[in-house]
Amino acid sequence: MAHETILVVEDEQDIQELIRYNLTKEGYRVTVVATGEEALWAVHGDPPGLVLLDLMLPGIDGLEVARQLKSDPTTRGVPLIILTAKGDEADVVSGLEIGADDYVPKPFSPRVLIARIRAVLRRATQEPADDNAPVSVGDLAIHPGRHEVLLGGKPIQLTPTEFRVLYILARRPGWVFTRYQIADAIHEGDGPVTDRSIDVQIVGLRRKLGAAAARIETVRGVGYRFQP
After folding, report:
1. Is the pLDDT of residue 87 over 70?
2. Nearest Cα to 7, choosing from 25, 36, 63, 61?
3. Sheet bearing 154-156, strands edge to edge
4. pLDDT tens digits for 39-79?
5. Is the pLDDT assigned to residue 31 strictly greater than 60?
6. Helix spans in 46-194 (H)
7. What are the angstrom distances between the C-alpha of 209 and each of 136, 163, 196, 197, 219?
8. Does residue 125 surpass a pLDDT of 80?
9. Closest CA relative to residue 48, chosen from 16, 100, 1, 7
10. Distance between CA atoms of 217 and 162, rounded to whole angstroms?
11. Nearest to residue 178, comparing CAs of 97, 113, 117?
12. Is residue 15 predicted with pLDDT exceeding 70?
């Protein structure tokens, strides 16, 4: 059974109770607050194992709460999942770029929410990936030191940019990366990297990866995720 404390920041009572019931049933300790101000006070007073943060809050909104938590060295390491109204893609992108670990759109399935929470908590307990560590997923192997990608033991020829995009995604399987985050990570002073150019790199990668291309998932309106 789980034992982590989850701080739920949600102002709608029905959703509060839905989340509290399902998380408690899974063994989590649950604290519920209804405003951004209460959330900031609660996190600094007794840091939880994870914050589940609605973006539409009275007073300080969820994005500002996320921004303050992720800019403060004492709280930036607390895992954060944002809850968003369906279709609010701009808010999803903003939240991820601030530093949120994942997002769940409303209305949501409690089973999906619990799965996302477990995944984020599991990632939070893992050591940060070494910038040069090889990555192996199924029959796909990526060796950054040798700048080599093998699929079923056979080498795949990628451009330097395609290689960097693939490695960024694959070393954090399950994480959603916005186009801006990918562009920022691969930029090395050799000209501007735009959202459109990231899409072009993904098209090229998928074409070369064959059957493994399905691992690169498009998260509509947000960016890309590598499926483990």
Report:
1. no
2. 36
3. 135-137, 140-143, 148-151, 154-156
4. 999 998 888 999 999 999 988 999 999 999 999 988 988 99
5. yes
6. 62-71, 89-98, 110-125, 160-170, 179-186
7. 14, 11, 20, 18, 19
8. no
9. 7
10. 15
11. 97
12. yes
Domain architecture of the chain: domains with CATH: 5-125 (3.40.50.2300), 135-226 (1.10.10.10)
Amino acid (1-letter code) at residue 195: D
Beta carbons of 138 and 130 less than 8 angstroms apart: no
Phi, psi of 6 (to 5 degrees): -110, 125
Task: State the pTM of this model.
Answer: 0.71
Phi, psi (degrees; rounded to nearest 5) at 184: -65, -35
- R_g over Cα of the chain: 19
Per-residue tokens: 192: 């501007």
What is the residue whose two structure tokens read 């939070």?
124
What does the DSSP assignment read for 58-85? SSS-HHHHHHHHHHSTTTTTS-EEEEEE
